[in-house]
Design brief:
single chain, about 220 residues, alpha/beta, Rossmann fold, about 25% helix
Length: about 220
C-alpha cells in the first residue's frame, strides 16, 4: 500500500519530469501536480500510476501516459475560461485535468461502464464542473456548442467535420490522426497529434509529432 503522502511526492516528481520534456503552461503543470492519477487506475496498478506510460483500464481502453495528457491539454491553450469538449472519457483523468483549466468540461464516452466509473471517481474528488454523456463521441455534443476547445483521446482516420462545426471561432481541436491509412482500421498504424484551429471560416492544421492511441470508434471514425 502506497501512502497518500508518497503519492503526492510521486505526482510532483512526475510534473517536474513533464516540465523537463517541454510542458511550460503553469496551469497545466499545477493540474498535473494536483490530480491524483492513482484514483483513475485499477488498484493493482496504483504503484505504476506515475510512470510515463499508458495503462489498461478495461474494455480494451487505456489511460494515456501523463506527458501526452499534459501535451494535449497545453495545446488547447487554456486560460481558465470557456467550455471544452472531450471525446473519449475513458478513466476520466483527462477530464479531471481539464476541469481546473476551463469553466465547464463536457465529456462523451461510448462505453457505459467506463463513463459511470469515471463519473464516480470525479465526483468523489469533489469536481462538479464535468458533465457526462454516454453516446457515440464522433457526433460531439451539439447541445452545448460552440466550444473553445475539443480534445479527442482516440485515433481517428481524419478530423470529423461534426466536431469542427462545434468549435467557436478561434477554437482548437486536438486530435490524433492516423497517417497514410489504407481505408481500414489498423491499430499499428502511425498517428500524428494534430491541432485544427477554426479561424474566420478557415481550418488551419498543425502537426505536433507522433503519438499512439486506441482507435476512435463511431459513425465518423472507425467502424467497430
Amino acid at each position: 500500500m502506497i501512502r497518500a503522502g508518497d503519492q503526492r511526492i510521486r505526482r510532483e516528481k512526475m510534473a517536474r519530469l513533464i516540465e523537463d520534456r517541454g510542458i511550460k503552461h503553469a496551469g497545466v503543470l499545477k493540474a498535473m501536480s494536483d490530480v491524483p492519477r492513482e484514483k483513475f487506475v485499477e488498484e493493482a496498478l496504483t504503484n505504476r500510476a506515475y510512470s510515463d506510460s499508458a495503462l489498461p483500464i478495461g474494455e480494451k481502453q487505456t489511460i494515456s501516459q501523463p506527458w501526452i495528457v499534459a501535451k494535449m491539454t497545453e495545446l488547447t491553450r487554456p486560460d481558465g475560461k470557456g467550455k471544452v469538449l472531450e471525446i473519449g472519457t475513458g478513466s476520466g483523468y483527462q477530464a479531471a485535468v481539464l476541469s481546473s483549466l476551463f469553466d465547464q468540461v463536457y465529456t462523451v464516452e461510448r462505453i457505459p461502464d467506463l463513463s459511470r466509473r469515471a463519473r464516480k471517481t470525479i465526483r468523489d474528488l469533489g469536481i462538479e464542473n464535468v458533465h457526462f454523456k454516454i453516446f457515440d463521441g464522433t457526433y460531439g455534443w451539439g447541445e452545448f456548442a460552440p466550444y473553445r476547445a475539443i480534445v479527442v483521446t482516440a485515433g481517428a482516420p481524419d478530423v470529423p467535420a461534426t466536431l469542427v462545426d462545434q468549435l467557436e471561432d478561434g477554437g482548437r481541436l486536438v486530435i490524433p490522426i492516423t497517417t497514410d491509412h489504407k481505408g481500414s482500421r489498423d491499430e499499428d498504424e502511425d498517428q500524428t497529434l494534430t491541432v485544427l484551429t477554426r479561424r474566420r471560416g478557415r481550418n488551419i492544421r498543425e502537426s505536433h509529432g507522433p503519438c499512439r492511441f486506441v482507435p476512435l470508434v463511431g459513425k465518423y471514425g472507425w467502424e467497430r
